[in-house]
Predict the structure.
Amino acid sequence: MTLAACGGAAAPAPAAPSEPEPKEDAAAVEAPTEEAAEPAAAATEESAPAEEAAPAEAGDGSFLERAMAGEFSGTEVSVSGPMVEEDAFKFEQSVLPFEEATGIDVKYEGSKEFEANISVRVDANDAPDVVDYPQPGLLGNFAREGKVVDVSTFMDMAALKNNYNQSWLDMATMDGPDGPMMAGVWHRVAGKSIIWYPKAQFEAAGYEVPQTWDELMELTQTIADDGDTAW
């Protein structure tokens, strides 16, 4: 699941989580909030002239450092995602330490019709600040349309690299209207597409781990011919 920030005013981002471990039914990012997720409003990049730059005392440090210093206390951040009922409660509890440390009020809105609702809100320029996307493909669509804020513009990339393997960052890098962009961060993973296999038994039977779909289908038939059920 990926958390991403949608267009509009940049909201302070929560601390990057430790590298997630794939597990069944983890809840994504979306993935990184869809992990704070991306709101659906059209992304707008505003670069103020140098003479209008924010004063040093209000802008030094990363967004997280500034948030922890209380600069954004009283700010309300809207988050939308697919989690409801018990999962929504768990998510809300997970952001309490962040709220207490920063004074930021995180408002989460979950829906079982999240995919349809977020598309409507994005099209209406009414996207939340952060969106928790359960499907990277949906996030990718909005990224290509320029509706997603590039995470690298407001998050400490060095911190992300310290907390994620490069492969996770690569998977969060998607095509934007002006080229590749960091579309979000992963905050949990549901490894439902992973095939587990008994390594010792495979080695004993002389089976090789398939590298392509065709090889997987051939191995499935071979295991069946040997009188066993493949998966």
